[in-house]
Amino acid sequence: MANIRHFHFGYLLLALLLLLGGCERGPQPDQLREELQERLDRNFQEDLFAIKNFKRTGSAPFRDLENDISGVYAYYDADLELEQDYSLSRWQGLNLGTLAYAIGATEAGIEGFRARGNVEGDVLKVHGRFAFRQDDSGGWKSLARMSAPAPAQEQKPGRDSQGGSPQSVLREARALLADAENFKAGSEETLIIEELATAIGRIDLSQARLKGDITLGSGVAPGTYYSFGVALSKYAAQRGIELFSAASEGSVANASRLQASKLDFGLVQSDVAQLLYRGLISEGYYPNRELRAVASLWPEAVHLLTLQGSGITQQGDLQGRRVAVGQRGSGSRVNALLIGLAADLTRDEFPDIRELSLAEAITQLENGEVDALFLTEAVPARSIQALAARRDDLRFVPIPTRVLNKLSENRLVYYPLTVPARTYPGQTKPFTTLGLTAALMTHSQVSDERVEQILDLLMTGGDELASKFYRAAFISRETMRLGLAVPLHPAAERFYDNYDRLQDKKDGGE
């Protein structure tokens, strides 16, 4: 036993010495500071930030087995002073998501961000890291494409079996879901886990409805809709309001649940909401006349992605190619469908459609199993940032002007959106695509009180809600009715009228 204790003590001591050694390795503070300034200028905007305070806070070794690269992560704290007014919540432009990725931080690692825009002299306190490897001369070379930190993972619940009660079975099921990554993809186990996840989601939603909570349909973890739902539910709890955010496949799934009165609210792309309200019988979408709009939240864009070696440079090159369009409940699939219809494609001209989840689509794109993929997401999309950071050959395919015009002629709620260069790692040129909005929808039977409650949360959240989910900063009274082609819920109409009336009085000094 004594030998075992000595072994464990020796092992821990060795690990500690290695860790301390790692903390001293890596570039000196001056090189790290120069790296930060260079990335600000190259990957975001020149002459926008001045580094006022900078501190190297340590380092840690890393090893990328897939690419056979080893080196160190060098961590830093810095104060960035704005040299001019700048809004990091622009509907069209480089925003906080791009800044965070460019400087090796997360959105939560940037303090001082203001929902209504920052002004000259404001200071952003940032906590980030950069990756370096040692060259043959003993110096340290930046690895720009490995510097962004991975998204924080939710803590896994432990196993806690208390017998055969429904609650204990549910606890065991949640623990099994937390270990899902340990099972081989495509195996019988993963099939069971997928069905189990769906069942648990329905149970959680039913329990929330039974308790009388406000229910909101969000999206797939860890996407934008899902993250917003989590942030809004936490903010609501601080205000004494019970709001349950239910994960889902996306826009179409949320709208279907609204139609069945299984949700109070749902996040739905503005174009999907319009399509489902009007109906598209030829494609199996029947009019949902009970759908009602509450607010437009933030801009989104259709991304059409491929790899350089695919030979795809324009939409017309998709004929006969393998294209991932998203799952059946997703807005991405609807966008791909509408773009195909607007392009007047014949059956022979259609691509080989693959209905895949985003994670599956990205994996298959990198493995050469699909040639392109559609994704409708807010800009920048974290999943595309991560893909672009590890792929020099990622390419963005523009949507043709004639398709944009055709969709506009059909009075669909699209607008041409130019995604600026530098939005994604390695993206040197802007590209034009379909713009739309993420919309908060409800149905006609939801009470006025609940509509007013959720609008009050959105209007009063400000910096506090934006600190939990930075895209909440995009929500403003000026934009909350943009791109909505579905009738407003009467309570929302009254809320906006009363808000504007009070604002006019305030501006008039009354």
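Above is the first protein from milestone M3; the second protein from the same milestone is given next.
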Amino acid sequence: MKTEPQLTIEDYQFFLEHVNGFVAIDTAGRVTYINKQICDFCRLDHDTAIGKHITELFPFSKMMDTVNFNQSESKTEFYFYEGRFSASTRHPMYKNNKLIGVAEYDIFEDMALVEAFVNHYINLDEELKYFKEESQRLLGAKYTIDTILGRSYTIRNLKEKLRHVARGDSTILITGETGTGKELIAHAIHNLSKRRLRNFIRINAAGIPESLAESELFGYDPGAFTGASKGGKKGKFELADKGSLFIDEINQMPISIQSKLLRVLQEKELDRVGGSKNIPIDVRLIAATNQDLNNLVSKGYFRKDLYYRLNVVEIHVPPLRERREDIPLLIEHFVEQCNNIFGKQVKKIDEAALEILLDYDWPGNVRELQNVIEK
């Protein structure tokens, strides 16, 4: 009959001495066993360490949590000790169904590999955070409905309308004078909508040369024209797919492009310049103008069918002279903004100066007010 080998106390001790970072405590937190490996690494005297409270040797230790919170399962903890990363597992020790102590040891033998992995993960996490912020800055909407300042009935009514129309996917036409904050309204609509986690792409129709307008909006395929990128290029509509596209100064859209824009809005698909296939898109269009489009239609400068397609929901942004009660709040905001930019400590504006600002008609609206405060 084969007999099982009998392990001696010395055998168990030999085993424990080769377990990385092994330490054991009783229920009072006193160290009952600590191996030479961890003593050497932490520069501890073995004989002195025995009997001491675990937090005297390792203030960051969580071994007493197992005792204090009556934890019956093993727990893994991550520590930084003297600039090094460590991952340890602690186990409750029971005898006759009674907790008699806690043992803890390091999970990994080669902590250098773990440190390298953690550092790599931290770097990746930081890079991901950076690219998310850059993506939000470049492709996201910067402003929210809270950025729209004002306590007047007009502004409160405007905000309520924005909350309502943002829920859907209808095309929105934002009208208003120069400087009233039409782009800010477009940002707010996107951030209130179900598309807020998708791209918010902006383009100013007045800033695009007519020769480039089609390729900028709808993109082009490789070799579409001389100087075209070899790989082709996505247009603003494709970049905004599943998100929102804001076209400012839509009244400046070249008449030659308006028919193609109308088709894209109706069919929800586009053709790239030089392309041979239809590309489906899902984009909510938000357009803005400081001109009376109906008047431009009557003069032949803007297509009537496109006007009706754009003007599904109209949001009119009131001029500043129609909400003068908001001027003090706007002044306070711009003063604080300028203080931060220029390192000033301006507390308030003189009452006489405020009266002048309240009486002025502000043809340039909020943008003009901001410029005046800055000056």
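Note on the second protein: The chain has a mean pLDDT of 87.
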